[in-house]
Specification:
CATH class of the largest domain: Mainly Alpha
CATH architecture of the largest domain: Orthogonal Bundle
Structural class: alpha+beta
Number of domains: 2
Distance between the termini: 44 Å
Helix content: 25-40%
Number of strands: 5
Shape: globular
CATH superfamily of the largest domain: [2Fe-2S]-binding domain
Order of helices and strands: EEHEEEHHHHH
Number of helices: 6
Largest sheet: 5 strands, mixed
Strand content: 5-15%
Strand order of the largest sheet: 2-1-5-3-4
Radius of gyration: 16 Å
Length: 168
């Protein structure tokens, strides 16, 4: 099937088997290898990308479902000479160890701050009628779909908190 989507601000036209996941389209066809294939079952979050500003597990969705969508991968957030604030905070706070989960963690972190800013509650939001607060519990709950085998969780929370405070 012929389809297109905009990836990191650039229109990309592809012809894919309809069974191709978004993750495989990004990695194998567009050579954007920042998003990782971890579990391939939507349990680890290593493949997290943003579609229309919302985070998704790219291994769980078919590429054809995203015809015309705006997709942002880790490659679209920043570059080595001009890091996105979240990327810089992850470096500053050692929010990674082996680095395998880091692209998904960072994409998810950026989307988490947008969710909080939009007032979208989580399972630990105390008052569903109020804007969610930026607490460690909120961040941990929202990031629970992104697993870090190395255990850099406290550093990841510190990085997200710093960026949120800078944006406030």
């Amino acid at each position: 099937m012929k389809l297109f989507f905009t990836v990191n601000g650039e229109r990309r036209d592809l012809e894919l088997d309809t069974r191709t996941t978004l993750l495989d389209a990004l990695r194998e066809h567009l050579h954007l290898t920042g998003s990782k294939k971890g579990c391939d079952h939507g349990q680890c979050g290593a493949c997290t990308v943003m579609v229309g500003g919302r985070r998704i597990n790219a291994c769980l969705t078919l590429a054809v479902m995203h015809q015309g969508d705006e997709i942002t991968t880790i490659e679209g957030l920043g570059s080595p000479d001009k890091l996105h604030p979240m990327q810089a905070a992850f470096v500053k706070h050692d929010g990674y160890q082996c680095g395998y989960c880091t692209p998904g963690q960072i994409c998810s972190s950026v989307a988490v701050l947008e969710e909080i800013k939009a007032g979208i509650p989580s399972h630990v939001t105390a008052d569903l009628n109020a804007r969610p607060g930026l607490t460690a519990d909120e961040i941990r709950e929202r990031m629970s779909g992104n697993i870090c085998r190395c255990g850099a969780y406290s550093n990841i929370v510190d990085a997200i908190t710093e960026v949120a405070e800078q944006q406030a």
